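Handover notes (outgoing to incoming on-call)

Open items:
1. VanZ family protein: sequence verified, structure written out, both below. Nothing else pending on this one.
2. Nothing else urgent.
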Amino acid sequence: MTSPEERPGRRALVIVSFAVYLVLLAWVVLWKLEVPWIGDAARLVRPVKLVPFVSDGDAGASAPIELLINLVLFVPLGLFVGALAPAWSWWRAGLVALGVSLALEVVQHLISTGSFDTSDLIVNTAGALVGWAIFAAVRRRAGERAPSVMRSVCVTVAGLALVAVVAFVASPLHYGPQRDVVVERSTSG
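VanZ family protein structure tokens:
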């Protein structure tokens, strides 16, 4: 007989909440909550920023507020990984976070809604690891109640994210028309 904590319906609620979070995360990262689009520069070869946290010849350093936002956006990923795979170690959760972040970076670069930046990979993964550390602390503190507590946390996070997105979309605040991410290179003769 399964305990109330192991009922499939309760796990399904976390899975649905995770799916909602992932859709919202993709929408925020790829289109900044604007109408999805593909830029004209998607067919052009564009630079990839491989050196994190500093400006290079093609791209400037990431703004501290942008790094903080990325960190916060990925904390729920670590919470969900912990809730859905509680036996995993921190490094496994980190690999999942790195994979999700890498996928989003590649897609935004390919569709020209952003550029590939290794700073984002590092910060996004760190954010998810912060979430996983919160999960680990809850697990230590809550003991047998940890699955119930984490389920509540995950469903609440997804619900709050959904409310925030609806509020943003309904508000007059918007980023304005997006521009293709193209780096102009000067030609020296």
